[in-house]
Inverse folding.
């Protein structure tokens, strides 16, 4: 019996073995500098990139013996240095904690560092690196001592889109144990260039919600994470960011049919990050009969000038979104929460929106800041951790 | 309100924008040759690689203006040709239908083509391309006219491994509608270098099972897809392929506690592909009190010489696996199915095993061949499609 040999022969015939061995270029048996550990975002055998949790520095390693220039693209461009074995190295200054996409430019070609797992961002599979927080980051880490919900991966057919659409749905740990209980639903959308897996992979939504629910801080809820793109399968592919129609006519009815949900507006919320925040404002403020809670993380609605259409007349708080804010008292009666969050490194825009609305008499407003973080996943994990406990109470 | 501008500024500050625009190198607005369509395995905006479904040819496109040599690694090495814009091209001969990993070598550096989605293989994130079958491939495609099960993503704590372990679990469409019904369970393992997502992503397990169950060919069942590796998070990472202990002591009890399962051996099966097939033989044949059905797809047990330990005495059908086959009548009484499958391009090993066992008097044996396919996912989709209807009847 030479079964295993046949497998190896089959692999060689099919050209897989060279790639396999090349694949371990950042893998086991590579020594690490003192104090450094493999990043948690690496593939499981990869030693590099390596992170020093105390100094928050990261060391990158790229094997490219014939390249003239190798650059690390991570918060700017950094020239890597070649050693005498054709291996390129770069150690960063201390980085901001949290999750960062990065790319390696080899002679001007941006490539994904194969030491990293793939994280979908900028409309392609990207490398990423997590600079760990200490104990303050425990809320988004797996906690073996509490009950765990699930991320359910489903496809539903969309007549509007003409395609099956992939969604991820978080259900709380208790869901299967209470076969008659109904749950409120939060629709949670990713940002531009990412996809419906972003919140569960980069965002650690299950760990965050498991912790909040176990601690009694959040009401057990279902979280639906759809794609914020309308993907097409035509010969020339395009995407649109206008998901309101699919959301209202297609996704919400599908969820209410498939899961044990409360179907009234008081038990339905929506939030999103970056472009997903803008999508949330569009969808919710034009469908106030369906949602009573909303959040924008590092991205909210447009009041004033439209940066995508500068020639259009700027809106005001009275005219934006078909005048939904005009009668503040009426708005206050309907919307139970309007949550606006931003990283402090992102600029004053979110705070300006908040103050504009507050001064106009909108209440049930919450303004949340993530200290020291930018337009990145740590900002959004913190936003969700602050937002979710406020819902459905 | 300049919220959107702040987002763009934040992106630029954090070095994301150049990567974004570089990211669309294979994206929309690229013309396609007549008869070619974007591969279904591409990221959703990528035009290349493109496939001609009639000729089964694929055209690859790589932007690498300063490279000296660009090679496509797909069933051998193929030199790509540079055009006057610094873009490299290669069009294949007709390819075998099914899913193939591929790599692009840019001046000897293997990189993942960013036109492709990421598929975990060879222990890193790899590009892949699906060469579509015609109607005969419908069984693994999404069918909008039938009910759909779900893939549930869960983590469970393993004391043996000292880590949380990720599993995917297929539950049939009817599971939520029958809150008191119990189900049989198939444990289904991936091969070397892949991970617990392989069966649901590359293998399309949900589409295959949804179709078999809707057609009344398969009994509704739960399918548990664990990692076949024991991953460690130590400073120098290592993996082991011996999962029997974790499976028996940790995973099976966790599944029986978490899902509505039958817990007797008659309602528990295990199968795997390649190394996962070898793991199945190890686990099942040493734990016959727990499993009554088993399958090895392009990989089964070792009878005879051990290719990994050539100095060990070869086993015989009487001595292999602690002599479990020796008393054929006793084995036949216990094991309801021993399914052996292979692609015809993989060699005669699987058939030899089958004949060895058959001649020894083992029955309830099934030998299945996938015509014209090799050590790849189409072989394993076909194997599952033939295997699953035989279970739990």
């Amino acid at each position: 019996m030479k079964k295993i040999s046949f497998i190896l022969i089959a692999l060689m015939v099919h050209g897989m073995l060279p790639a396999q061995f090349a694949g371990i270029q950042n893998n086991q048996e590579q020594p690490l500098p003192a104090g450094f550990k493999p990043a948690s975002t690496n593939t499981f055998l990869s030693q590099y990139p390596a992170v020093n949790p105390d100094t928050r520095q990261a060391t990158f390693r790229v094997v490219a013996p014939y390249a003239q220039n190798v650059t690390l693209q991570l918060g700017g461009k950094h020239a890597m240095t070649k050693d005498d074995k054709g291996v390129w190295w770069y150690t960063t200054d201390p980085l901001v904690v949290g999750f960062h996409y990065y790319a390696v430019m080899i002679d001007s070609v941006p490539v994904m560092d194969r030491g990293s797992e793939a994280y979908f961002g900028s409309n392609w599979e990207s490398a990423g690196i997590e600079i760990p927080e200490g104990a303050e980051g425990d809320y988004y880490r797996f906690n073996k001592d509490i009950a765990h919900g699930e991320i359910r991966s489903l496809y539903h057919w969309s007549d509007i889109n003409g395609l099956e659409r992939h969604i991820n749905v978080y259900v709380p740990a208790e869901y299967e144990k209470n076969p008659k209980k109904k749950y409120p639903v939060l629709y949670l959308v990713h940002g531009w260039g990412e996809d419906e897996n972003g919140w569960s992979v980069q965002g650690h939504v299950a760990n965050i919600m498991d912790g909040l629910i176990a601690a009694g801080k959040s009401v057990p809820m279902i979280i639906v994470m759809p794609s914020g793109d309308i993907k097409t399968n035509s010969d020339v592919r395009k995407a649109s960011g206008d998901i309101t129609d699919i959301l209202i006519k297609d996704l919400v009815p599908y969820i209410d049919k498939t899961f044990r949900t409360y179907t009234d507006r008081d038990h339905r919320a929506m939030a999103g990050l970056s472009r997903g925040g803008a999508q949330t404002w569009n969808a919710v403020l034009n469908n106030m009969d369906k949602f009573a809670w909303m959040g924008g993380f590092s991205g909210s609605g447009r009041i004033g000038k439209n940066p995508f259409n500068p020639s259009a007349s700027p809106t005001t708080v009275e005219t934006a979104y078909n005048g939904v804010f005009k009668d503040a008292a009426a708005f206050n009666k309907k919307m139970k929460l309007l949550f606006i969050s931003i990283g402090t490194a992102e600029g004053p825009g979110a705070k300006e929106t908040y103050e504009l609305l507050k001064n106009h008499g909108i209440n049930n407003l919450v303004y949340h800041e993530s200290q020291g973080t930018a337009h990145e996943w740590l900002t959004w994990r913190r936003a969700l951790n602050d937002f979710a406990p406020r819902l459905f109470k």
Notes: Residues 1-24 of chain B have pLDDT under 50 and may be disordered.
